Amino acid sequence: MKNLAEPLIFFLALLALWELLVEIIKVPTFILPPPRDLYTAFVDKFYILYKHALITFLEAVGGFALSFILGVGFAISVVYSRHLHNTLYPLIVILYAMPKSAFAPLMVIWIGYGLFSKMAIAFLVAFFPIVVNTVLGLKEVEPELLDLARINKGSQFDIFRKIRLPNSLPYMFAGVKVALVLSVTGAIVAEFVAANEGLGYLILQANYSLDTALALVILLILALLSLTLFMGVEILQRKMAPWSAEVRQIEGSF
Questions:
Q1: What pLDDT does residue 14 have?
Q2: Rounded Cα–Cα distance for residues 191 and 58 (Å)
Q3: Dihedral through CA 174, CA 139, CA 148, CA 244, nearest 10?
Q4: Which of residues 251 and 35 earns the better pLDDT score?
Q5: How far apart are CA 95 and CA 154, in angstroms?
Q6: Strand positions, DSSP E, 58-158
Q7: How far apart are CA 78 and CA 88, in angstroms?
Q8: CA distances to 140, 168, 220, 230 from 223, in Å
Q9: Quick one: pLDDT at residue 1?
Q10: pTM score
Q11: Is 199 within 8 Å of 52 (Cβ atoms)?
């Protein structure tokens, strides 16, 4: 409970300080509105925010789901295929270092203006962390365990199911956490480039009209969305990989 109370108290204190400083310094509202203006903007445009947030959520989660399925499958293939490891995996590492926002205009040309081009950018930014972390987890196995499995005549599938896969789960979940947050960012970047709906599109409209309160509300919604997805993965990790060091550290802090 202490871990939840501390950030909540800090956030409330930050809001109070924000309100106080805006009143004292007399900052114009189009530069930095007080927190009460953000609340008013949220209430007045709740339905619009909900509709656009749902679209961004679908883009981000859809792109992430595709990246997870293909990323884990590709990572397993790389570990078990020397040819893929020597040919395609270096290409994946190179693409990982490239700015994914540069692909956004190309995706609009290749796929179109609709939902799938946004999902494609979310897929691109989420795919690489999942692949790299899963490959690392599948390969970082103690040689003694593999030798023991071979001595006991364990098949490759048994080694994968009982040794490599459990060992890779903490690494995989680390990649999934990064990928989920990046998928939200990728969807927003894609909406900046070409969209007529979604939170990214709404931010641009708020900026054009100098509606700073609405823009800040959208940023808070995006932060809350990313945090919710992140916490959901942490809960899943506690269920599926309770042996990971990160889970033990979290549980030990309560």
A1: 83
A2: 13
A3: -10
A4: 35
A5: 36
A6: none
A7: 8
A8: 33, 28, 5, 10
A9: 47
A10: 0.82
A11: yes
The number of angstroms, rounded, from the C-alpha of 228 to the middle of its chain's C-alpha atoms is 10
Hey, what long-range contacts does 223-227 have (CB within 8 A, 24 or more apart)? 225/53, 225/56, 225/57, 225/60, 225/184, 226/180, 226/181, 226/184
Q: Which residue has the tokens 């931010």?
A: 203
- Helix, strand, coil tally for the chain in percent (to 5): 85, 0, 15
Report the 10 Å Cβ neighbour count for 95: 14
Measure CA of the first residue to CA of the last residue in the chain; give whole Å.
7
Q: How far is CA 239 from the centre of its chain?
A: 20
Torsion, CA 219, CA 223, CA 229, CA 233, rounded to 10: 160
Which residues have C-beta within 8 Å of that of residue 42, sequence separation ≥ 6?
Answer: 49, 217
Residue 17 tokens, joined: 């300080």
Mean pLDDT for 212-221 is 92
